[in-house]
Design goal:
Blueprint: H1 2-29, H2 34-38, E1 47-49, E2 67-75, E3 81-86, E4 92-98, E5 103-108, H3 109-112, E6 116-122, H4 124-128, E7 143-145, E8 150-158, H5 165-173, E9 176-179
Length: 182
């Protein structure tokens, strides 16, 4: 009896370990992930507005039609990235994702407290090279550290009413992500 109980507990434990390892490794083996789908339409380090999703067609699955969206595929191997995103009248957000889809930072227009969300995206090594300036406070310069050299930045603006679609599309279309000069 105890032998069967021990075998059952061991089997459940090993099954859990295999299940967890599979779930964590699966995003790295997917060939048609969001980054790959956006490669043909979004050049590196350039903000590109995405077309509004329809039930039949969406660039990335599960896109919300209540938001206008722009995407920037970034590569920080040539230096840090400067991101500028004007806020819309309703609601705006900026989300950061690793190459394989894990979200690591997000900010909204409410948290930014300004008419424009401005931040610098860099790796920990690039941040270490930034000189500490006593005149520049944390509120003046928002720096986001990324765990990887490549990934995605999504800028979204809420479309509260269908008639406000052009306003939201203009807001995300005027967002910029560009490599900072050295």
């Amino acid at each position: 009896m105890i032998r069967w109980l021990l075998l059952t507990i061991t089997g459940i434990f090993l099954g859990g370990v295999v299940h967890l390892a599979t779930v964590l490794y699966l995003p790295r083996t997917a060939t048609n992930d969001a980054y790959s789908r956006l490669t043909p339409i979004a050049p590196v380090n350039t903000m590109v507005p995405l077309p509004q999703p329809t039930p039949e067609r969406a660039v990335v699955p599960f896109m919300d039609p209540a938001f206008a969206t722009a995407v920037c595929r970034y590569d920080l191997s040539k230096g840090p990235l400067k991101l500028t995103a004007p806020v819309s009248q309703a609601y705006s957000s900026v989300s950061f994702y690793e190459r394989y889809g894990a979200a690591y930072y997000a900010i909204t227009d409410r948290a930014a407290g300004r008419r424009v969300i401005e931040l610098d995206l860099m790796t920990a090594q690039q941040r270490a090279l930034v000189p500490e300036d006593e005149d520049v406070t944390a509120a003046d310069r928002l720096i986001v550290e990324t765990p990887t050299l490549t990934g995605l930045v999504l800028v979204r603006a809420l479309i509260p009413e269908r008639s406000l679609l052009p306003m939201a599309q203009r807001a995300v279309a005027s967002a910029k992500c560009e490599i900072q000069p050295p």
